[in-house]
Amino acid sequence: MGRSAVLTRILRRCRDVAGAPSHYPVNVVDGAQPPTMKGTSYHWRTPGGEICYSPNAYRRKFGKPIYHASTHRVEVGEMWLRELLVLGLDCPDEVVTDYVSELV
Length: 104
Hints:
Elements: H1 3-18, E1 26-29, E2 36-38, E3 43-45, E4 51-52, H2 55-62, E5 66-68, E6 73-77, H3 78-88, H4 93-103
Parallel strand pairs: 1-6
Antiparallel strand pairs: 2-6, 3-4, 3-5
Helix pairs in contact: 3-4
């Protein structure tokens, strides 16, 4: 199995545990937390800060609505990731260090 195939399996496993769709990015953080979904969906706001559900309807009254991109992501602890690699994929320690450093 090639290097990219193993990285794909690791990222897929993290998303599966978190219950996230396959397009969410995976961020490695300090600690041993299991994969969790974080962030908010995309949305529009008026210049005054209120959420717009129909941006074109607010254009005349409040001014041009402001688009805010999605911040959805999966966060996983570095120690949890190391345990997955050692116990779940039977990787030696030096390989684990290589994969974790590539993901961080």
